[in-house]
Amino acid sequence: MKLNLQSTVSLHNGVKMPLLGLGVFKVEEGPELVNAVKFAIKSGYRSIDTAAIYGNEAGVGQAISDGVKEAGITREDLFVTSKVWNSDLGYEETLAAYNDSLKKLGLDYLDLYLIHWPVEGKYKDAWRALETLYTEGKVKAIGVSNFQVHHLQELMKDAKIQPMINQVEYHPRLTQNEVRAFCLDHGIQLEAWSPLMQGHLLDNPVIQAMANKYNKSTAQIIIRWDLQNGVVTIPKSTKEHRIIENSSVFDFSLTTEEIKCIDELNQNYRVGPDPDNFDF
After folding, report:
1. Which residues are annotated as a binding site for substrate?
2. Contact call for residues 100 and 70 (beta carbons, < 8 A)
3. At what residues does the UniProt record annotate the site feature described as Lowers pKa of active site Tyr (predicted)?
4. pTM surpassing 0.90?
5. Which residues contact 34 (CB under 8 A, 6 or more apart)?
6. Weakest mean pLDDT among 1-15, 70-84, 85-99, 218-232
7. Domains of the chain as residue ranges with CATH
């Protein structure tokens, strides 16, 4: 079946999540944010990823409200994700944080709610809160972010519901092989943040050669590599031409050998914090 911008993957609870979405990390509240989200929706994007710590949920909510009207779709056509921040990782605190995010977004429910980071001694209580939200029908799916295998194993010892998503830093220099294999074995969908390594891979000669072959940008090659590896991805951009470019990845396919060549660029190199050694 040919993929397109509305193509989805089924999470282990049956909820369908778009394979490609828009991330808004570090995009400040204001017209730039609102216009980017509205344009993405107008262009066919159906997944928007934000977080409490981004400080832009209100703007995302405004853009969603305006964007669905302008695109002639409904809220139910969108898949909206947010995340609970480290300072709110407790049972009652997480429930309150969810309600606060919902209020800022101006929504009745979220499609996906994630624990942002695996803060030791706190993420299990937060997970119980996510299970409550899910059981009560207040969120369609629940998951985690930046969890390594040992975090997942520890969480799943006591969890009544296993995570549906693990959103991690994932790009050709950090292929997360161990985490990816564990998630695949346990029906947890892997999702990539910083798929373009904050732009550091855009002049890589291996990827550039493929870009030349397919008459695509290096960013498009990397996003296509994500999708063909079965990884949901949420590249960030506020520029209209980049938003369109990042989604124009459904008219070509990388070969098995090309996928392998990109896989081999891995150096286990992070541009973000180490989930086993972070302090915020």
Report:
1. 116
2. no
3. 83
4. yes
5. 59, 62, 63, 66
6. 1-15
7. 8-263 (3.20.20.100)
CA 142 – CA 130 distance, rounded (Å): 6
The tokens describing 13, both together, are 């609870």
Give yes or no for a contact between 112 and 143, defined as CB atoms under 8 angstroms apart.
yes
The pLDDT tens digits for 131-170 are: 999 999 999 999 999 999 999 999 999 999 999 999 999 9
DSSP string, 87-120: GG-SHHHHHHHHHHHHHHHT-S-EEEEEE-S--T
Distance of alpha carbon 97 from alpha carbon 63, whole angstroms: 21
Rounded to the nearest 5 degrees, what angle is found at the Cα of 231, between the Cα atoms of 97 and 253? 145
- Measured CA distances, 208 to 8, 23, 189, 270 (Å): 28, 24, 28, 21
| Tokens standing for residue 273 | 């914090």
Could you list the active site residues?
54
The full length of the chain comes to 280
Q: Residue 188 in contact with residue 161, Cβ under 8 Å?
A: no
Mean pLDDT of 203-231: 97
Tell me: the pLDDT tens digits for 56-89? 999 999 999 999 999 999 999 999 999 999 999 9
CB atoms closer than 10 angstroms to residue 88: 22
CA distance 33 to 26: 10
Distance CA 62, CA 33 (A): 10
Rounded-to-integer distance, Cα 247 and Cα 186, Å: 29
Q: At what angle do helices 31-42 and 57-71 cross, to 10 degrees?
A: 40
Q: How far apart are CA 101 and CA 107, in angstroms?
A: 9
48 vs 71: CA distance, rounded Å: 15
